[in-house]
Amino acid sequence: MNKTKIGFSLLGITLIGGGIALSTSLSSCGKANTRSDINLVITKPHLSYIQDNDGVTILARINAMNNTNLTLNVDVTITNITTNTATIDGHGSFKNSIEVYFAVSKNISNLINITDLGYISNSTNYDIVKRVNELNGTRFVLDINVTITASASDSATINGTSDFTGSIGLTWTMKINISGNISITNLGLLPDDSDSAIIACVNSLNSTTYILGIDVTITNKNNTSATINGINAYMGSVDLTFVIPTDIGTMIKTRDLSMISNTDDSTIVDAINKVNETNFILGTDVTVTNKSDSKATINGINAYTGSVDVTYYIFH
Questions:
Q1: Cα-based angle 189, 181, 234 (whole degrees, multiple of 5)
Q2: Is the pLDDT of residue 140 over 90?
């Protein structure tokens, strides 16, 4: 008798005879398609005013308004550009399309919506225009599209020139260089090398109030040094040095001192140094407590930490 294969497909499930084969939409190498919807990335498609309706200018405005970092022809392409609309097509890691809307204006007061430039490191005319462009998605070029006048320590006026018109006031706050506040860079002994311990010591020695992750970060850290860096309202970097206490337990391996002549603290420490090839100084590196005729406790101080019990017997 001939066997007949009966098959049909419904909702991605294929039945062949008595078998079931499941199929899903997969991209290359069998991985699921994870491209992001461009509509969920560009949530503010109404761009207000832009200085030109070319693709680069449109995308700069999109990035500024949506806090994105999309790259033309890598993440998106721009098509169907008119005098007040364009289509943004997802590319690469993005999919689908979205319409954006704008009006071309040559009046800089329409184009510069964010006039408080926040914290800046330098207040040269070049740096001011650069910051304006970053915040507003504009593409002004100093002395070609705009000029800067009435510049003070924390304010200035930006003026349209050439084919641009209008003027608008700008304000900012200068960042503070931490090198001017951190004069003591040798922190001495620290309880540990955590970032919080380093910042706490910097603040204590220099009468500062830096907050880790808000004012400063710590980088280039090892067992004896680190770099503190200003962020947000602060700038600059300062190299720091410090000492992390060593646990004497890692150095005193031989704890049976065998025979000693007496139980003076100095005699016990000398015996420890001899059998362990250490150089502890009584009262500077270690103390001796809980002493009896057969045992004592050695405690790390200053550059050393921890405690170790040692044993011995007295030679008579």
A1: 110
A2: yes
